[in-house]
Amino acid sequence: MLTLALIGLLGGLITGVSPCVLPMLPIIFFAGSAGSAGSAGSAGSAGGGRRRPLLIIAGIVVSFSVFTLLGSVILSALGLPDDFLRWVGLVVLGLVGLGLIVPALGHLIEKPFYRLPKINRPDNGAFVLGLGLGTLYVPCAGPVLAAITVAGATGNVGSRTVVLTVSFAIGAALPLLIFASAGSRISQRVKAYRERARGFRIAGGVVMLALAVGLAFNLTDLIQRTIPSYTSGLEQKVAENKTVQGALAPAIGNASTELSKCTPGAAELAECGPAPQFQGTQKWFNTPGGRPVGLGELKGKVVLVDFWAYSCINCQRATPHLLAWDKAYRELGLEIVGVHSPEFAFEKDAGNLAAAIRSEGIRYPVAQDNNLATWTAYRNQYWPAKYLIDAQGTVRSIKFGEGSYGQTEDQLRKLLTEARPGLQLPAPVDGTVKADTGVAGRTNETYLGYSRSANFKGTGALAPRPTATSFVLNEQQPNDTYSLGGRWVVGTQSVTSTTGAQSRLNYNAAKVYHVLSGHGTVTVSIPGQADRTITVDGTPNAYQLVDTPDVHRSTMTLTYTAGVSAFTFAFG
Asked: What's the rounded Cα separation, in Å, for the pair 300 and 303?
């Protein structure tokens, strides 16, 4: 039980510092400061102010724990819609924001709690605000949260699940407590804050109202997608750790035990038993007449089963790769089937799911797996997760989480050629396998679009705009980074050249590939070598820029004609 608690705490701590919590931070900061802003001169108020962050975080822990485990049961028993709790949380957040702006309204909201003698009046609403925020807290997916969600959805809630849930909630809340405490201390100790307390309260109320609107319309997803998933590597290590897998095994169940023959993330294809059928689904999308899809009718095709949830930021980052594979390989025998297994109750709403499918541009079949029946049949533990099934219906590969897209694409290409020997395949759309599994110490795959770019080191704002942005090349390009020059139109997945467009790349590799699309040319300039020009024509393809026998460090400068879209650099 102690091991389980430590795993839950570690999983929560990783979540608490991940990009998924960013929309919560301004709310927590202003909420932590609001209780003592107007009464810093009173010792009692100061003591209450110090307790306010703890009360807010306690409310989040209680609310998240209870509603993650029992939310579906409670809503079903009361006949309430699946997204009811989320809207309650948004209303609470909106009311608290209005209360900060209009003090009279704030006192009216807090009035019902004056009768509770043990609640110090300056902090009357803190715990209630925490309860509301707990219903809005949508942490990044991971194996711990997956085990908790499965237990809640299937009704298999025991002492182990409660310990895991509470320890996860505490771990995730600790970084939030730091922010709330920071807001409280600033409000008490900074003179400028005390002198302008009313103005800061109004600003906090405006921030809360703005974030309530942003959360209601999922506008905060853009922020979370834009920032690279800096905790994904650590999450991956936790997911693939044997101790963690053993501790969480009771949540996985005993179905399809042959799937354990597949090591998640392995580069080599394996034989992991027959693929389980899609089962216990509520609705199907993108099929004729909403008809369910059976694996029997997909025999002869290579099938990629993708487990996802529409509010999961990790899943949203993976979707563009699935869309690219669907477009490139559907006519060649690949069938992608999305299985939407919700993390939270509000994701069970079919209308919300349909809107997400339209928004993401998904055209392959999607099954609604509200009770996690198919998830359990596949012994799944992660959002997102990919299961590759060969033309005979055997599971050949499992991948948990983001990343290794080149490896997954290579595996599905191998399965396509196994099914149809002699099949002519297009160039990989996510680079080559060597870009993901090559020599240790080589430069990591480099994304140029704003949503995933992590190593841009140059002059200019790498942010999406409908018009061209001016950039200046870095004269001394740092190792394993790139810069842009001239004018580029910056997009989510790529940058498109206009006038005078250039890029400069410092790399350590034997082979360099550049994924490009459009129509035009790219001139490659490497010190000590003659310039050469590549012709770009058509949909995204990987063009090889460097091919040497040994890994070496160098810097290249590329010059683009207008109309060429650049997606990634990949290395081998």
From this structure: 9
Mean pLDDT of the chain: 75
For β-strands 334-340 and 366-368, DSSP reports them as parallel
The secondary structure of 111-157 as a DSSP string is GGGTT-TTS-GGGTTHHHHHHHHHHH--PPP-HHHHHHHHHHHHT--
**What angle do the packed helices 143-154 and 43-78 form, to 10 degrees?**
50
| pLDDT tens digits, one per residue of 405-452 | 888 998 999 999 999 998 899 888 864 333 333 345 678 778 788 766
In the structure encoding, which two tokens stand for residue 524, read together? 């490659």
How many angstroms separate the CA atoms of 241 and 247, rounded? 10
| Torsion angle defined by CA atoms of residues 36, 38, 41 and 45, in that order, rounded to the nearest 10 degrees | -40
Query: Rounded to whole angstroms, what are the CA distances from 148 to 239, 280, 334?
Result: 14, 19, 33
Treating both helix axes as pointing N-terminal to C-terminal, what angle do 197-216 and 24-37 enclose, rounded to 10 degrees? 150
Percentage of residues in the chain having pLDDT higher than 70: 59
Q: What does DSSP say about strands 395-400 and 532-560: parallel, antiparallel, or unpaired? A: unpaired
| Residue 45 in this model has a pLDDT that exceeds 50 | no
Question: Which residue, among 34, 63, 202, has the nearest Cα to 126 in the 3D structure?
Answer: 34
Segment (H or E) for 382:
none
Whether cis (ω within 30° of 0) applies to the bond prior to 384 is yes
Residues 6 or more apart in contact with residue 349 via CB below 8 angstroms = 81, 82, 83
349 vs 140, residue with greater confidence: 349
Confirm whether pTM is higher than 0.90: no
Phi, psi angle pair for 520, to nearest 5°: 160, -160
Q: Which of 229, 223, 205 is nearest to 318 (CA)?
A: 229
Task: Identify the band that residue 111 occupies on the pLDDT scale cut at 50, 70 and 90.
Answer: low
- DSSP state letters, 308-359: E-TT-HHHHHHHHHHHHHHHHHGGGTEEEEEEE--SSGGGG-HHHHHHHHHH
Interval 61-73: pLDDT, tens: 777 777 666 665 5
CB 223 within 8 A of CB 451: no
Tokens for 510, please give them.
């034997």
Do 277 and 399 contact (CB within 8 A), yes or no? no
**Across 30-51, average pLDDT:** 50
Question: Which residue is associated with the tokens 């759309």?
Answer: 429
- Closest of 372, 378, 316 to residue 342, by C-alpha: 372
Could you tell me if 474 and 505 are in contact, meaning their C-beta atoms sit under 8 angstroms apart?
Answer: no
End-to-end CA distance of the chain: 44
pLDDT exceeds 80 at position 292? yes
The first and second tokens of residue 164, run together, are 């895991």
Amino acid letter, 286: N
pLDDT of 121 higher than 70: no
Distance in angstroms (rounded) separating the CA atoms of residues 2 and 160: 10
Nearest to 451, CA basis, from 540, 307, 318, 558 = 318
Quote the CA–CA distance of 50 and 180 in Å, as a whole number.
10
Radius of gyration of the chain (CA): 26
Per-residue confidence (pLDDT) for residue 37, from 0 to 100: 44
